[in-house]
Structure formats: structure tokens, C-alpha cells
Amino acid sequence: MLLEGKKAVVTGGSRGIGKAIAIKLAQSGADVAVNYNSNSSLAQEVVKQLEGFGRKSISIKADVSKYSEAEELIQKAGSEFGRIDILVNNAGITRDALLIKMKEEQWDDVISANLKSVFNCTKAVSRLMMKQRQGRIINISSVIGIIGNAGQGNYSASKAGIIGFSKTAARELGARGVTVNVIAPGYIQTDMTDQFTDSMREQLLTQIPLKKLGATEDVANLAGFLASDEASYITGQVIHVDGGMVML
Ligand SMILES: NC(=O)c1ccc[n+]([C@@H]2O[C@H](COP(=O)([O-])OP(=O)(O)OC[C@H]3O[C@@H](n4cnc5c(N)ncnc54)[C@H](OP(=O)(O)O)[C@@H]3O)[C@@H](O)[C@H]2O)c1
Q1: Mutate to test the pocket of ligand 1, among 109, 190, 219 (most ligand atoms within 8 A of CB)
Q2: Is 36 annotated in the active site?
Q3: Within a domain: residue 237?
Q4: pLDDT per residue over 65-91, tens digit each?
């Protein structure tokens, strides 16, 4: 197994892409701390599923947009597992509105939940990983951070910010054996995209060469690889999982 004995933290691991990543890491041999913000029963179900694979797992409530809670999350996971080899910064929200209608609160909430959370958890875990001289940080951005999207100024700014931050972190932590990479998913079937109407969905498919939305497992498979020793010479990269939607 690619991740035998590894210890991981997945933020927003209770649903959607984060849940699929937690499952993939556990199936590959890792013990996983499943972070969530509000829905403890969903997080607990994921923990049970991971334990079913013979792995250790705990759920940890933390609003990762707040530094003190992110720090506590990393401390709890570290003391439960003894070390942290893998951090997946996946937690994220949308609060869509056109620029002229966007409220300050919508801007602030999305930047805090999506971007500040990545700084918070990465800072909290980096001392530990630098001491270990080994670590994998995987940050979930979005193709919207690269091409923009009307109605998502806050979201696209947060996702573009993740890319710049990750490249800097990759440069700062590389000498200590810590890699930092970004996954940029396109449209993936989750609660976040379930809100789309049929006509929005049809319009989207015209932009996707593979003519379908992605599955959460498509993102999880890449996260599993990036977390493994097989990806040890890959850092500072942004890898798309988008059915060919955005080609640079
Ligand atoms: N779905 C897509 O098409 C798509 C495309 C590109 C990128 N992404 C990105 O992929 C990530 C996951 O998306 P998803 O579609 O799986 O979302 P989702 O189904 O809405 O799940 C979001 C997860 O994040 C958690 N979360 C939200 N705010 C949090 C906070 N402040 N602290 C801790 N946990 C928090 C939620 O926990 P609670 O339920 O407990 O609040 C939940 O587990 C996000 O960063 C998203 O931007 C998604």
C-alpha cells in the first residue's frame, strides 16, 4: 500500500471531495483525522468507514478559518497519531454574487474559509513537518482560480490566492523534504454543484471535452498519488482534474 503507516489530516473531510480523499488515503494505508465544521454525524460516519478499512481515524471539529482552531486541529491530530505526514487543505465554501451586489461579509467569509484556512493549517503543520524532514501538503484550489467566473469574485480570488501561497510554501519548505502541491478541480459532482439547474449543467458540458462532471474519486486519486513517496520530486505544481476544461 502506497501510504502504509502514514498519518493524515483532511480539512472538510465529512462530505464531497474531502470525504473521497479521506477514503482514498485510508484505503492506501494511512490513518486519517477527519476535520469538519458543523456536521459531526457526517464526520463520524466517515470515521466509521475508514475504521472499516482497518485504519485509525478520528473526527475533529474546527473552523479552520480561525487560526486558533486550525492550530488546535493540528495539535490534536499530532498528539493522537504521533506525527503528521499529510495535510490536505480541502475545506471550502461559496457565497456567490455579482461584484456590484457582493456584500463585504460574502467576500470576507469566502476569503477566510477558503484562503486564510490554508495559511492557518499550513503554518500550524509546517514546524512539525520541517522537524520530521518529511511532509506532503496538498491544497484544493479550482479552475475558477485560474480563469475566473462571473458571480464568483470572492471564490476565484480565494482559489487564485491558494496557488500563489502554495508556490511560496513549496519554495520555503522544500529544503526540509516537504512538498506543497495544488489540485485544481473543474466541476465535480458534490453538494456544491448539486445546486446547478439543468440549463447551467448543459451550458457547462459544452465547455468540457470529456462531456461530463467529474467524480469526487477523480480528485481523490490524484491526492492519493501526490501524498505518496512516488510523488516525492513533485512540488509547487498546479494539476488540473477538470475533464480538459482548462488547458494552459
Ligand atoms: N465541487 C466542485 O465542483 C469543486 C470544484 C473545484 C474546487 N472545489 C473545492 O473542493 C473543496 C471541497 O468542495 P466540495 O464540493 O466537496 O464541498 P462540500 O461538499 O460543500 O463540502 C465542504 C466541506 O468543507 C467543510 N467546511 C466548510 N467550511 C469549513 C470551515 N470553515 N472549517 C472546517 N471545515 C469547513 C464542510 O464541513 P461542514 O459540513 O461540517 O461545514 C464540508 O466537509 C472546496 O475547497 C471547493 O472549493 C470543488
Answers
A1: 190
A2: no
A3: yes
A4: 999 999 999 999 999 999 999 999 999
Residue whose CA lies nearest to ligand 1 atom number 19: 16
Any ligand 1 atom below 6 A from CB of 231: no
Asked, for residue 1, whether it belongs to a domain, the answer is no
Nearest CA to ligand 1 atom 2: 188
* CATH number of 224's domain: 3.40.50.720
Collapsing DSSP states into helix, strand and coil, what is residue 7?
strand
Does 145 sit in the ligand 1 pocket, CB within 6 Å? no
Residue 86 lies in a domain: yes
Q: Note whether residue 2 is domain-resident.
A: no
**What is the number of domains present in the chain?**
1
Q: pLDDT, tens digit, for every residue of 150-176?
A: 999 999 999 999 999 999 999 999 999
Domain span at 67: 7-241
Atom of ligand 1 nearest to the CA of 89: 45
SS (H, E, C) 29-79: CCEEEEEECCCHHHHHHHHHHHHHCCCCEEEEECCCCCHHHHHHHHHHHHH
Cα 219 from Cα 191, distance rounded (Å):
15
For ligand 1, whether the C-beta of 240 sits within 6 Å is: no
